[in-house]
Amino acid sequence: MRVLVLSHTYIVDLNREKLRALAQLSPDLEVVVGVPRRWRPGGVQNRLIVSEPLQAGNFRVQPLGHLSQNHQGLLTFGPGLVGLLKTFRPQVIQVEQGSRALAYAQTITLNRLLKLNAKNVFFTWWNLPYQLKFPVSVLEAYNLRHSHGLVVGNQDGANILRDRGYRAPYRVMPQLGVDETRFRPQPQPDLAASLGISSDAFVVGYCGRFVKEKGLLTLGEALGTLRHLPQPWVWLLVGRGALRDRIQTQADRAGIGDRLRWVTDIAHDQVPRYINLMHTLVLPSETTDSFKTLTAQGWKEQFGHVLIEAMACAVPVIGSDSGEIPHVIGDAGLVFPEGNAPALADHLRLLMADATRRQELAQAGYHRAMGSYTNRALAKQLLKFYEEIGVKKSK
């Protein structure tokens, strides 16, 4: 089976692990990843990533000339894409730029003109309702009409595209898996001591952006009600963001300011060490106003990747019911209504008081991460999906 994946996401080598794993599933699989030759992630004007070609067995990365260096919706590829399609003749073309991507319309059209008969597949994270104006509405309708399969990062995104007319099969799975060789159970007694965390303290953890929509003020409110518990505990916050001072002020007023431990400006490869300090990781995200147009403000948790990182470390997780979080956790953790501090406090009390329940959830989360969310597990799901939409194995 010959698979071509196109996305700016894979300019970063670390992000390619799922596709490497896909290529390793069978000697009959060939995976080529087409990436922009130059890209400015996040539109940052002073940072330019230049992609380099790579060949490792039946896995290959091919930089391609393109238009737009920082807008994924406007990304289109130059003549190099035509040459790649002619020589590689993929059986699957998967474009991971969303339902309205020009690059996806480009590959659909080239697929037809070159008579490749490849299956057209796209990926999206978008999980809030929206409205489109001409000509973007026509572009999306064209893309949806000619799609054979959809890989979507969350169930809400699949439901929205169903409402917009998408009728082909879909598979819900994240774009990137968890690296179980890095995110794994690893006791960190020395690190705990360096942060002033005693060996008998229960560590409530958060890892991510310090922003309002992540529900940190709700978590702070819940923890404020636990200040008189006999069980010693601390709140470990790993990340960065503008809400830090407000969180500290709230904690000081609640009488728990001295229990906060801040860890900021660390490299991502250090994150597993800090997750392994936690007795529970909490992701208390809160949905903001729904999108009415593409420029309106609004947000809902699209996945919550830190949840599967914590699960892989055998750390019990607690999440709100915002967006995809309940689907990610399943029955391998605890879920509370977003914004409900008393319900969150009840979950925290339970885990602080019941070591047996804590261990049960730790093991359930670990097995869920290993079975569903590693890069190899995602690669297997992807291959099965290709077979479901009618892609034949190469002869």
Query: What's the overall geometry?
Result: elongated
Q: How many structural domains?
A: 2
| Gyration radius, in Å | 22 Å
Oligomer: single chain
Full CATH superfamily name of the largest domain:
Glycogen Phosphorylase B
* Largest pleated sheet: 8 strands, mixed
What's the β-strand tally? Answer: 18
CATH architecture designation of the largest domain: 3-Layer(aba) Sandwich
At the fold tier of CATH, the topology name of the largest domain is Rossmann fold
Q: What fraction of the residues are assigned to beta strands by DSSP?
A: 15-25%
- As residue ranges, the low-confidence spans are 291-296
Residue-averaged pLDDT: 95
Strand order of the largest sheet: 5-6-2-1-9-10-11-12
Number of helices: 14
Give the class from helix and strand content and strand pairing. alpha/beta
